[in-house]
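Run: sequence + alpha-D-psicofuranose -> complex structure.
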Amino acid sequence: MASTTAVRAALRTQRIETPSWAYGNSGTRFKVFAQQGVPRDPFEKLADAAQVHAFTGVAPSVSLHIPWDKVDDYAALAKHARDQGVVIGAVNANVFQDDDYMLGSVTNPDPRVRRKATDHLLECVDIMDATGSRDLKLWFSDGTNYPGQDDIRARQDRLAEALAEVYARLTGDQRLILEYKFFEPAFYTTDVPDWGTAYAHCLKLGDRAKVVVDTGHHAPGTNIEFIVAFLLREGKLGAFDFNSRFYADDDLMVGAADPFQLFRIMHEVVRGGGLDAGTEVAFMLDQCHNIEPKIPGQIRSVMNVQEATAKALLVDAEALAAAQQAGDVLGANAVLMDAYNTDVRPLLAELRAELGLAPDPMAAYAASGYAERIKAERVGGAQAGWGA
Ligand code: PSV
Ligand code: MN
Ligand code: MN
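>> structure
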């Protein structure tokens, strides 16, 4: 087993970004259940995200979603974030909620709609300039529902053209990170359905274009850790959108459906250097808490990522390599399972104590009185954007 001192040192440096949309009301296409005390504006979302960081110590940044988090002054929003003890992270573009986008955004057959969509992406880079964000995160709902509805190849050309224009607008260390999803809302073709399509576009764009692996965006049975290993090896894994799926894009708390899968993914991250200093891999949550309270839902997810990471760090790499080299199938598997079956909760509690935090973030948040305070202070919370 790897030394726990080294494991603790690595865990100290891990950062997990939470999404602004996790803090507002959300739901399914059937119903949005309103919860008391949810944020009424982006400023309050950042205040709630700061609570997740205050109790976990590892969630110091928050992704925005534009226009859900539209404000007049993004520099002021960034300052507000810093005042709360967090920073603004990735900017997520939204080119899927306008009527104009019924037949697609950047792949729409109508050049006017394509222009509008690309302009929105460029506007998101302006916002990144104001907030100091590094990453522009792109997920496109674009696709078709019926064979023959549109030209599959032409849509790829239009996508490439828009991505190239946006990529050319990036400056400094800014990155374009491209997410894929195998279906929904389109049901016949999706224009960025899989890692291969995202990878091919990113490869053409250049070094600052990377792929986002959203753990909920694969067909059942897909070996996500293989994709992670491959992209890391190619220097093209830009970020994770962590969440759990039972059926499709369920956006449940990460590690809830399949903690073993999360461990296997984190094992490949560790193996591929994705946790090392200066890593290019951003660890983000992309979840919607429809029925559970928002802030504790995020805290639980952050803890689940930490637990999977701790287990992955505990894998005895030397013993594993020796067993693999010797063709010892059962021995190699046992090395991995030993790490997975370790209860890392005491180790994480110790780590939190070292960082001056309460050992149990869930209990500490519950005891803090914050939930009661926001329920009393905030009336008429905002909707996250989903399930409207
Ligand atoms: C839609 O599938 C989605 O869940 C994607 O995962 C995006 O990252 C997220 O919405 C926010 O746009
Ligand atoms: Mn996502
Ligand atoms: Mn999704």
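>> summary
The mean pLDDT is 96. The chain has one domain: 14-314.
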